[in-house]
Design goal:
By secondary structure, the chain is mostly helical. The chain is built from 13 helices and two strands; from the N terminus they run H-H-E-E-H-H-H-H-H-H-H-H-H-H-H. The radius of gyration is 20 Å and the shape is globular.
Amino acid sequence: MSERALGMWKDWRLHLLVFAIVLVTEFIGLYEIPLGPGVILLLPMLYAVIIGIGLFFTPLVKEKQSINAEPLVFISVTLLIAKFGVQAGPALPQLIEAGPALLLQELGNLGTILLALPLAILLGLKRESIGMTHSIGREPNVALITDKYGLASPEGRGVMAVYIFGTVFGSIFMGLASGFLATITPLHPYSFAMATGIGSGSMTAASLGPLVAEFPDMAATITAYSGASNLLTSVTGLYASIFIGLPLAEKLYKIMVRKNQKFDNNSKEV
């Protein structure tokens, strides 16, 4: 074991801080704040991110802890990916019965690339936009970007920015959007149930709550569709990002940057 790895595991201050954050957040627990037809769901993971960011600006967290925490994020994400794989086997019959709608839903996540990547480039972001927009930026996607580019790369900073933003605001947004859209649109509740499975446990839980509350007679079926959808997205989402999402984001980024450079050159000539 290298000296840096050994020092990381012996960093008692880092492990003690993380353990303390876990205790505090689990003690606070889960809170639901009704807001019209939607629900703001406050989860322990949300508290943990906020507390961790706050502690970074205190003397309790030094540069050593900040550096050591980076590879530990990748290790924890690896364990989650292994869990997704173990869950996939027993759920295969349920996923097959769900039909082609669930199988094709992953293509909808690619819309983040076509919509968000051009906007990010127009706002002045560089290669950070690839990490930010190639997916919804949850744990498997953090692992993918970390493995391909490194967490300290522009792409790594981009995906981590979206991961943190999604953790803090994603559950709130999904809880409100689910409740409002389910009550003001004519779409069937089952379609919203499938839409809740975006590969994030916290966001799925936040968006499922309003649906169950709004359609209590369909609660069991809605929950089943949501669980199958989320599991399928968790399993297939990483492969969709590897073979479609990330290459598409890279290609679109190169095309847009090339066009912007040509536009700048033409403007200078005029």
